[in-house]
Amino acid sequence: MKTWTLRGTTTSYVVGVPDHGQWAQLVAWGPHDGLAPVEVVGTEHFVPRADVEPLEYAVRGVRYTAPVDLVVSGPEGTDEFRPAFVGAREEEHLQLEFVDTIRLVLHYRMVGDALERWVTVQNDGADELTLHRHDSAGFVVPVGNTVKYLWGEWNTEFQQASVTLPRGRFTIGSAQGITGHTYSPFLATDGDVAYGVQLAWSGSWEMSAEVDTTGLLRIQAGRSSSSLGLRLAPGETWESPKAVGACSAEGVDGLARAFHHYERATSRRRTPKVLYNSWFATEFDIRAEHQLELAERAAGIGVETFVVDDGWFVGRSDDTGGLGDWEVDPAKFPDGLDGFITQLRGLGLDFGLWIEPESVSPKSQLFQEHPEWILRTADREPVLIRNQLLLDLSREDVADFIWNTLHRLLSTYDISYLKWDANRPRLDSGDQRRDLDGLVVTNLYSILDRLQAQHPDVLVEGCAGGGARVDLGMAARVDTLWPSDNTAPLDRLRIQEGFRTGFAPHLMSSWVTDAAGTHDGRERSLDFRFHVAMAGVLGIGADLSRWTDDQLKTAARNIAQYKGFRELIADSNVYGLTAGVQYVGARQSVVFLWETGDGNVRGTLPRRTRRVPLAGLDPARNYRVGDETYPGSYLLQVGIPFDGTADSHCLVVELVD
Q1: Of 214, 312, 598, 637, which sits with the fewest C-beta atoms within 10 Å of its C-beta?
Q2: Is there a contact between 605 and 595 (Cβ–Cβ < 8 Å)?
């Protein structure tokens, strides 16, 4: 067997092609010092050998009874192909090439401890082919059969759950044309050595985990298959999105850190600024003078960017109109938007703007002028969600309109922050003979890439009715992601814990608001709310006109503290603690501790002092916590006290020698 080793920071991945050249298979995957081989022994009965081997990418015609990753049919009706290995290239990344009528190339690239995998399929024949299933990769997991996943719904995203598979199959996905609230494209295993797979795709997708009869777990990840398949003309090449696998000998916490490192390596890193968004204070009732009153209060507590949310444009007094007509409403900004921005600059504030460029209101002028741009099924009433429709972003003229709209706004006005929202799924979508999902997502990515290239100083926040478009594809193209519309402190804490299992803190936009809990409405202090939000990219969304002087002072104190360590939050190693989270840098750590139980009974019964052991420190060094100095070994084994009446703490741990 010919083998290739992809060596990461602490882990290695070994792939091989047997001498017969019929497939590629996993040889080993794991930590450098504990690289266990993956090998199936014994004689198969009743099924082909390919159906029991740990295949990297299974083609229908090579494998039959076990799950396959690629199903292709030709004009004669057959769906069996047997591409044979013809060679490997190792120029920029590893490529393993297999040829039949189709030319299948398996691509591999290691980034830190994360392995990018994707495929290209070329039609080398004279007739059109159809791709019926087209996964990005199949990851064989050497150990474990308990699969962790993230589920949710609007206002309840990123809930952690797991399922144990003695044998059988577990599948999650989205048929919404967008990543979705229901599941995240993320599957992982728990254990001393943890493995995980994510998919970098912002359309419809599917991921499956299956434990076969030998007890081996395999995770498949890819775009959802179209009902009519994807047509591939002679000479045409189709490329899948990337599936990204990672491995850590430090369990699921270490696996999260491996994904965080990958996301920092594949996205641009910008200094996060403290923003204020006026949505919860005003909703659609936007008046320049009121916005400026809020801006003055925001500037007074240390906010750096002021964002005007939905409602700034003509025809937008509620959610039934205006989308698509992206012109500033002069009734709301009598001195023009540029005059408003000048006044913000006088307060020392940058300006940010909300937009939902993929959507259109039936009452809008755009709808009347370009009905052909609406995504819909012919001779059917379009499906309204939140009183809006979608533009057909598979069309180049629609993509040009969206780009020109954004480029015009960013070139005309001094905008430094763009909140890109998307408040509905893609449902009725017309002619399925085209690759609608592929065209829409490709055009979306192209626009976001152009934004970074031509407006590099504009920070972009990705939002989709909360966290409905959080995935590695977006993480590489925006500066922050909005995990959820739920900003209540205890609810949000649980959402953020789930978010961090797959996504880095520099992506996690989090606001302090006055919102009551959707699921857990128990009161928590303003400090608690700030500490939850400071664990990501801090923003304020409360109605500051209602805050007391004491609340404003609390806000100013927390914002000033956050500015002192925000770069650490964005770039550190993150460790989950028994009562919080720790961000560890080279010489400094930040620790957040939250009291999530019923604090009213504390102190009414005999108890020991509660302590929280820390993580990621050097046991042989000394550290200062407040006015005290402790050996690292003490902090790791005994921990820091978490007592008293405060319901949360933010502590800075500094190396002193």
Answers
A1: 598
A2: no
Bridge partners of 159, per DSSP, are 151
Q: What is the pLDDT of residue 600?
A: 43
Q: What is the pLDDT of residue 601?
A: 46
Which amino acid makes up residue 198?
Q
* Helix or strand run (H / E) with residue 441: helix 436-454
Question: Within 13 Å and on the Cβ side, how many CA atoms surround 566?
Answer: 23
Q: Which residues pair with 158 in a beta bridge?
A: none
CA 168 to chain centre: 28
Proportion of the chain in helix, strand, coil states, percent, rounded to 5: 25, 30, 45
State how far Cα 89 lies from the chain centre: 31
What length does the chain have? 657
Query: Rounded distance, CA 375 to CA 385, Å?
Result: 13
Indicate the SS3 state at residue 490: helix
> In degrees to the nearest 10, what's the CA dihedral of 266, 267, 271, 277?
-150
Instruction: From 312, 439, 469, 320, select the one nearest 385 (Cα to Cα).
Output: 320
Which tokens in the block code for residue 302? 């240390």
Q: Which residues of the chain have pLDDT under 70?
A: 598-605
Q: Residue 532 has what pLDDT?
A: 98
CA 577 – CA 493 distance, rounded (Å): 13
In the numeric block, which tokens belong to residue 391?
């533009």
Radius of gyration of the chain (CA): 26
Predicted local confidence at residue 32, as pLDDT? 94
What integer pLDDT is reported at residue 112 of this predicted model?
97
pLDDT tens profile 1-45 = 999 999 999 999 999 999 999 999 999 999 998 887 898 899 989
Q: Tokens in use for 301?
A: 């507590």
The whole-angstrom separation of Cα 544 and Cα 98 is 62
Contact 303, 278 (CB under 8 A): no
pLDDT tens per residue, range 285-344: 999 999 999 999 999 999 999 999 999 999 999 999 999 999 999 999 999 999 999 999
Per-residue tokens: 329: 């409403």
pLDDT score of 35 = 86
Q: Cα(310)–Cα(463) distance, rounded to whole angstroms?
A: 13
The Cα 359–Cα 374 span in angstroms is: 9
In angstroms, what CA-CA distances link 557 with 48, 65, 187, 590? 67, 63, 39, 16
